[in-house]
Amino acid sequence: MENNQTQKIVTRFAPSPTGFVHVGNLRTALYAWAYARKNKGTFILRIEDTDKAREVEGSIEHVMESLKWIGVNWDEGPDIGGPNTPYKQSERLDSYIKYAKILIEKGFAYADPYTEEEVEAFRKKADEEKRPFLYRDHRPENPPVWNGSLPLRFKVKDIKSYEWNDLVRGHLKAGAEALDDFILIKGDGYPTYNFAHVIDDLEMGVTHIMRGDEFISSTPKFLSLYDALEIKRPEFVMLPPIMGPDGKKKLGKRDGAKDFLEYKKEGYLPSAMINFLAFIGWNPGTEKEILTPEEFIELFDLKQIHISGGSFNEDKLNWINKEHIKLLPENDLEKYVFEWLPKELQIKKIVPIIAERIYKFGEIKDMVEKGELDFFYKEPSYDKEKLIYKDTAKEIILKNLINVVDQFSKIEELKFDKNEVRTCLDVISLETGKKGEVLHPVRLALSGLEKSPDPFIISEILGKEETISRLNKAILLLS
RNA sequence: GGCCUUAUCGUCUAACGGUUAGGACAUCGGCUUUUCAAGCCGGUAAUCCGGGUUCGAUUCCCGGUAGGGUCACCA
Question: Which of A57, A208, A230, A396 is the most buried (most CB within 10 A)?
Fold first, then answer.
């Protein structure tokens, strides 16, 4: 388990193209990537497309787009090649056949003569008897010579309990029940995951295998295969599961796990997604919760990976995203916000106002649709009763508004900013002694909304002329 | 059912065997304030149960309970 200082770290992310990737897949990719980056190693993207029936068109592009979105870049992969090309399992069949032949020669593999229905019957019987299904209980006595059209099975010669070390969980073991004559090559000529990934990892020089803990129980199968081929075991890094929001079930596509790119569509930041994903199953052991991707790589350490599952908490994601929005340089923030705004609302000065009120950029869409921002570019319409602050007499409100217009008129056009406006309104408030009676009607006259940003900044954004014009409209309404 | 694995506030988590069990999100309250948002301050809230080992267990061991995984010609 000790890291050999001279050995270059090689990790990989190996999705199967069966549709979109979700946060669980991405977290695995993220850790493998971060570990490689931190150790100046190599991160490989490999496509495990050996199940032709489940393959979904466009998946590979979708996976790559998901990774690219959050900046998880690979050093070798199907699109860019590398020293161990090809990076799609469907194009590596020769390798699997080569090793299959070695196994046959060594007596570690044999053809499976049963039909799928027959095997299914064995399984059903075992299930009814509440026994684990083991093919080796039905191992044929004189299997036919393998000709490529029958499934090829691994032959477990030494049925024993296996033990191994895991960099996260430490010492692990499994009973002999976990060992079976699993299929190496299917009837259709494609290898199974169990076989293919072992060969690929060997040929690609993968040093650390990171994957979800659902693979713990099949690890003895891999181990027996390593032994048969006399391959040195790679390091195992079992990642804890990500549970759904209820904290009970493992998060999976069937339980509503979202397409990872949905988060992009909803307006989350890549850096926030990395931060959030990183913290499901790992933390730096300090009280720091907001990390940039660079900080994450720097701090990432296998020793701090958790062993128990964590649940996906959207509230926390939202909070993290908000914190990352705060970290955004002005220009980037503006770019993001403008993406969600119609032309007429692409006003520089409203960017911070909006940013302060959202967790994710998608919320801007709602604000726009509800017309909550319209007053920034067009005169609001509102019920005149709303101008009245609490039970203040109409005459007082009117008098104050007239006073405000009077004072605003005296401010130089170029000096008409939020500070000047605030000072001016403060003076008037001080004279009347009732702040609300002055500020509320002004704010309402400008925004037309019960809830809005303060009147100072609105005045600045609207400018002197428009501000006074709106205040005059309000005066007219009340008269 | 077999095998494997996990267990600290509602959630994510911290705590060389010795802490008033810490932090964050959420929630509640207060301050600030014309409203909203933000900000600041504070509150509620946890070691699954039972045995051991120990002067002393959240921590180590055993058992129970509860959760998760796995038992494919899927990965």
Answer: A208
